Amino acid sequence: MAPALTSNSFRVAPGGGRRRSLYSTREHKSLKTVTVQAKQNLFSFGKPQGDASSEEEAKGEGSANKANRFFIDFGKIPDAKSLVPVVTSPSTTLFASTRRKDPRAVFVAGATGQAGARISWALLRQGFSVRAGVPDLPSAQDLARVVSTYKIISPEESKRLNAVESSFSDAESIAKAIGLATKVVVTVGAAENGPSAEVTTDDALEVVRAAQLAGVDHVAVVYNSGPVGFSGQSSYNVLDGISSFFSNLFARSQPLTLGEFLSKVAELDVSYTLIKAAFTEDYSDESSYGLVVSEEGSTAGTASEFKVSKSQIAKLVADVFSDTSIAENKVVEVSTSPTATSKPIQELFSAIPEDGRRKAYAEAVAKAKAEEEAAEEKALEAEEAAKKLEEEVKKLSEKKARATSLSKEAQQRVAEAGSSLDNLFIKAKGLSNDLSWDKLSSQLTAAVSQINNNNDDDEAMEEKKARTQIATVRGQAKARNLPSKKAVVKKPPQKPKPKQPEVKNIFGGLFKQETIYIDDD
């Protein structure tokens, strides 16, 4: 049995008898599914349908051919590759499907690469379903023919192999090719994008980003630290070295270094395991040595470090996917040693610490978030302070406007008062002109004389009234002492005339003094 070669199915089964083929087509949403069952020789074609000899042969076959109403003559088919449908949008329906993820499905990016093919076979042997991402389906068909011929995988394993056309161009297309797989593996190195093309750290980063988009649980990145060249080995050709030099010199951009790649992977929300090793071929002596797994940077420059065969790396990846919890967020360096013994995967990875880049990035994100929150709080405080200041400025503006209006009103009143005062001064000036000292003196003299006259009259009246009262009292007293006699009426004696009052001018004639003489009787 050969592996399936499309995102639907492509099954090849050997058998005896006549060279007949049976195919049926069914449409699954936007993709067509083709199932082919061939007898012994997959690529044996019949004669053209219009040939008379083929018609006679068909008549001679009798009822056997008539019974099979789906008999097809391959004479019209120029190449067996035409049996493989061209999928313009691979796994589009699977990517958009609401079906649950398959925990035992693994997407192998670059499944036709030197290490990618071996990783696919190792995963199939451990019971995983493999979605093989290939750069083009015809090349995958050639590989499937070799696998079918040499019985590299069993018929049962071929049922769990599903090939999808996938490149390293962008993360979205890779995410569609991942489909329902929950694990992804990609190998960085020469001859990993097909049999000869290279997979760079930039390509691998696109695969990791696609894994995040597709909701993948774990990603394994295999990094070949061996010499650059076909199969990881130098060709020892000077011209190849010169062409490689100028290719790197005039390249648009240099690929990411391993440190830069890991820093960017640590920023993504997907667990990862990076396996760094120097690859060698499966027929080398190192393939029989035991694996040594150590933490990053512990074996740099070690003379006793031996390379690792691609089959050993493939088995290690399959073991990691069997229990991803022991290798989550870890970076390891793998080598071989003739004295190392075989150990289970749990023992190999248990002593490896987690990658500090993910923790440092999480701390940096938390710190940045805290700083952002603090900045937001300060911004809110500043905004509130600005609002308060704006309110105070508004109040001050209102007060200023009020003060300005009061000032204008006061100025208006002052102006009005000034005009009134000027009028008063004018009137006062007019009065001062009308007023003279002589006139004032005469007026005062007249007023004083009038007052004195009034006072003199009042005093004379009071004195006269007192003298009358005194006389009355004395007369009453004498009358009591006198004997009773007949009343004799006597004429009152004439009183002398009082002296005329004396009038004198005082204060230079300003005032007059009047002297009045009064008798005691």
Automatic annotation (TrEMBL):
Coiled-coil ranges from the UniProt annotation: 358-413
Residues annotated as domain NAD(P)-binding: 110-323
Residue stretches spanning the membrane: none
Gene3D superfamilies for the chain: NAD(P)-binding Rossmann-like Domain
Signal peptide: none
Residue stretches of biased makeup (Basic residues): 487-498
Keywords, sorted A to Z: Coiled coil
Top-rank taxon: Eukaryota
Record flagged with keyword Coiled coil: yes
Keyword NAD: no
InterPro entries for the chain: NAD(P)-bd_dom, NAD(P)-bd_dom_sf
Ranges of compositional bias, category Polar residues: 1-10
Region (Disordered): 1-28, 472-503
Name listed for the protein in its UniProt record: NAD(P)-binding domain-containing protein
Organism, scientific name: Ensete ventricosum
Record lineage: Eukaryota, Viridiplantae, Streptophyta, Embryophyta, Tracheophyta
